[in-house]
């Protein structure tokens, strides 16, 4: 049956590129999701399988990371224009490049002037509440999910166990990022006790966990997480128990050596933000003498 090739395009989709620029102690983040789609004289690869006109999708990915390092990311538009022009003008068979970019915005945590390397992603987290009443006692567990935070320095991970399967290198300066899912249980049980101001409590707890994330010099996500919970218990009398489930959102330094580019943390760097697999770090933090009642698996709450 005679057939003809219609519209076609190809490229690497969803390159998660994070560019951190260091201006002394003040860091700046550009966080993009870049998708490249190229088209042009691509009949042969489809008809005969000849790759003679095919710039690999892997190369398009490398170009995104290398351009981020070499030229920086001023804006999504400027970055996209630069990439599109490059593909169309440097490769004869490529006639059209479509660069789609999603940009994730970050806000600083804390006061300007002190350690400006902690960020919370813009856009509201989801606030959660679970209320249980058995006719006598109340149990209120509140929380949040999808509160995405990042420290662009003051995080290390070293001194860990090494066995025959360990390849992870020790690091004294890494990106620490997570999307916080947390629950906290109130000690309010009804019966004439003063009712907490639920909204103030939520705002204060959110503030304390963000400040603990920003202010802890991190030796592991486990340690940072414990500090976040302990700070809530220390500052909020109405809370007896906190549970966190924190994915360790790995940011890998991209190897740009093959393109003659040095990519290290010292002067700001480009990272590949990986979404899976991820470390999953979970714990309950309890006020002394109190018992744990929040389920271990937070997807059940
Ligand atoms: O903060 C961390 N805790 C770990 O337990 C761990 N494991 C790992 O590979 N990286 C990290 N990072």
TrEMBL record:
One of its GO terms (biological process) is purine nucleobase metabolic process. Gene3D superfamilies: Urate Oxidase (3.10.270.10). O2 binds at residues 57, 248. Pathway: Purine metabolism; urate degradation; (S)-allantoin from urate: step 1/3. Urate binds at residues 57-58, 157, 174, 222, 248. GO terms for molecular function: urate oxidase activity. 5-hydroxyisourate binds at residues 57, 157, 174, 222, 248. Belongs to the uricase family. This is Uricase.
